[in-house]
Amino acid sequence: MSIWRVTLVFLLLIPALVVAACADEPTPTPTAAPTATPTPVPPFKIGVMESLTGPGETYGTVSNQAKQLAIDEINAAGGIDGRMIELVVEDSKCSAQDAITAYRKLTDVDGVKIILGTSCSGAMLGAAPLAEADGVVLFSGLATNPDIAEAGDYIFRTAMSDAQLGIDTGNLLWADGIRTLATITEATDYAEGVRRSSVARFEELGGEVVAEERYPSDITDFRSQLTKLFNADPDALHIAAQAEFSGGTIVKQSRELGFDGPIYSEVVPVGATALEVAGEAATGLKAVTADLDPANRVAQRVLQDFRARYDYVTLPWYLGSAYDDVYITAECLKRTGDDQDADGFRDCLYDITWSGAIGENYSFDDKGEVVGLSNLVVEVLPLSERTEENQGYRVLGGAPTP
Amino acid sequence: MLRFAAYREGQGRILAAALTTAAAAYVVWKIAESPDQAVQFAFNGLSVGAVYALLALGFTLVYSTVWFFDLYYGAAAAMGAYGVFYLRTSETVGGNHVNNPYVSAVFALVVAGVIAWALHESLFRRLERRSNPTTLRAASGLLAATAGIYTGFVLTNPDHLHMLLSPAAGVTVAVAVGGVVYGVLQRLFVGTAAAPLLIISAIAGCVVGAYCGLLVAGAPGSRLYLSWIVSCLVAGAVGVALYRGLYVYMRQRARSPLIMLVASLGVLLAITAATAIVFESAPRPLPRAFGSDSWALWGGNIKGFNVFTVGVAIAGFAGLLLLLKKTALGRTIRAIGDDEEVAKVVGINTTVVIAIVFFIGAVFAAAAGLLSGHDTAIQPRMGLLLMLKGWIASVVGGIGNLYGAVVGGFALGMVEQFGIWDLAGEWKDVISFLILILFLSFWPRGLLPRG
């Protein structure tokens, strides 16, 4: 009997051990910027909310690293008139709930009035009403949901809205001579939003959607849907995917089914995983995406410095956007001279025109939306020409305006 | 009760006639409307139908022998696919290399256990009276341990799969060829002493086996296809281990198949969850196999690989049919399916025969899983989805009937495709399960009832 008791005790211990192991996991700690020279003046305190763990981890991490890179450059160059800037980082994950917790911590405990973040639209929409009510500036480089435009007076972003992506896609389709279109869309908010805004612009210009299909996120065989789409004989196929895997698989299976027309998409189907899945089938795929301009010197220097410091580069546009946000913040702090003056900071943002990594002479409209930036059109290269450097595609230029 | 059943049957007949007419009219109308799309749908239906047919074959074999739903079946399909991924992918998952010594050790242990049990059941029982039991035990223990270590080596060195598997392939071919040659010689030279015939067939077997071993060793490109064999065999071994380690006790203690259904559901969910932990839950591609180019045919397109899948399904069907109808083993399997108690009474070692059935069933599931994985993608939940489709296919075809399994598999594949002609693609699963419900309530014996 005793052996069974021992086993039972062990079995009961397992959950306890698991819990203990989980608790030991290192939680992201706020990283303070190293001060170059000790100064008697206290540093400016700026809050940062990023999705450092969970589903948005890739975005949040690269955004946070780009901000650290920028802040270290500014502090090494002497700060703002001798005052350093300190970033207080909190993990907002990718959810409204965690964003609210992080926001409360930053405003109540650390007493910041200016917050850079968040990395996810969901988190942004969760924290925005609180920030708006408290008069705290929330400034994001990554959140793209169109609803953020209406979030309030204190809410700003350098990330371009998905609505802009849709308009650019519609324009590109029309400019390329596409008149009839078939769409396949993953059944998620993001993908559905991209499809809706692209199709709206395309139909406004006179195009016609001849067939459309939606798919749940967990399927891997798209052939029946694609067969139906191609039977409508469209000029082109438009893919709006949330997951790189499904985006790549759709491209691959389209070609397997003998479709030889052009394929258009947003950023997801040209990601590294998607291109690996699709292989040679992806060649010629055109995507409208926010990407850094190869001719922009600031952008190229930032990418180089980032690679030198962190030994990798991913999501270059978002990296540049996060980097620019810090410099814009520094400029506005220089103008207001007070990190508690959220109203002054807000007015500075409405006022400012900036040239940085993601574009030149861009500014913010009265909704806090960035204006003066445009998406780029990229085309996937043949398999033999894809390298880690070019990420598998070449930039064709800005999205056309008919 | 009888009157009700008759009433139900009459109702079923009318419904069947009405539904068949309606479906046929709909399909004819649609084909006339767009023959190209019909051809493409037919090709799509063939590709998925072949996978469903393979699943239904194994399912029907297991179900008609032991009469309970072994849900491990779904996990075997996922293991077949993930086995190929495990052996042939060099990428990392969550920062860890896919090929992990702990995972390999688990499967090596399982294989060692299964081999030890098989030796105990087959050789030990026969030799017990003639030889010293201690020597026998030591020898079979040693053999099992060697097999386990060998499996571990094969699983942890996927880059040298062709080298590591060449001895096994050589020995297998040598034994098979030797056996066949001996059988033929025995029939040709009736009355001759056994020794010279044995020597001749042994030499022939060794030569052919060695040649095959060399062929395998010298073909580094064959590693993908060797990994298919390894993952099918490992999935089969796990099936046998579960049978021996879990179901045998349950069958002895509780006679209700419901308890075993629940236990195997636990097994399925546990394996699915473990797969999701080790390999992450995102879908992934398998390495490219042959036949990824598609051929244009009659206005549709079909991949070479899909044609191959259909071929495998038909070959699997033919093989299983031969096994069941023409061999002694097949006769014992059918005897157990008819009445296990009587089979036991007439001296059939039912435990061993059922273990073989579980092995074959799991190999069929693993083959279906890896073929479907190469065709589209793998994900931890695929086992559950494939198992449900295999089950529907065997219900539609008529449980316990091999012809029915093949017919049901292809029929389900076709209905899924043609059914969404005017509906959105998301309705595919709804159609499959509606068919299941229809069949269960009106024609529970399926299209081709068990004879």
Question: What report would you give on this structure?
Answer:
The complex is a heterodimer of chains A (402) and B (451). Chain A is 44% helix and 17% strand. Chain A is α/β, with parallel strands linked by helices. With 451 residues, chain B is an all-alpha fold. Chain B has a domain at 1-33. Chain B contains 16 helices and four strands. Chain B has helices spanning 2-33, 35-66, 72-88, 101-127, 133-156, 161-188, 194-217, 223-253, 257-279, 304-326, 328-338, 340-345, 350-375, 382-397, 402-419, 428-442, and strands spanning 92-93, 96-97, 294-297, 300-303. In chain B, the strands form two sheets. In chain B, strands 1-2 form a two-stranded antiparallel ribbon. A two-stranded antiparallel ribbon of chain B has the order 3-4. Chain B is globular. The model of chain B has no long low-confidence stretch (mean pLDDT 84). The chains are: A alpha/beta (402), B mainly alpha (451). At the A-B interface, strand 7, helix 7 and helix 8 of A face helix 2 and strand 4 of B.
Annotation keywords:
heterodimer; A: 402 residues; alpha/beta; Rossmann fold; seven-stranded mixed β-sheet; five-stranded parallel β-sheet; 12 helices; 15 strands; B: 451 residues; mainly alpha; two-stranded antiparallel sheet; 16 helices; 4 strands; 78% helix; 3% strand; globular
Quick synopsis:
The complex is a heterodimer of chains A (402) and B (451). Chain A has 402 residues and is α/β, with parallel strands linked by helices.
Note the quaternary state here: heterodimer
Low-pLDDT segments, ≥5 res of chain B: none
Class by alpha and beta content of chain A: alpha/beta
Question: What does the average pLDDT of chain A come to?
Answer: 84
**What can be said about the biggest beta sheet of chain A?**
7 strands, mixed
Distance between the ends of chain A: 83 Å
Shape of chain A: elongated
Radius of gyration of chain B: 24 Å
Calculate the mean pLDDT score of chain B and round it.
Answer: 84
What is the largest interface, and how many residues per chain?
Answer: A-B, 27 and 33 residues
Distance between the termini of chain B: 24 Å
Number of domains of chain A: 2
Instruction: Find the CATH superfamily of the largest domain in chain A.
Output: Response regulator
How much is the radius of gyration of chain A in Å? 23 Å
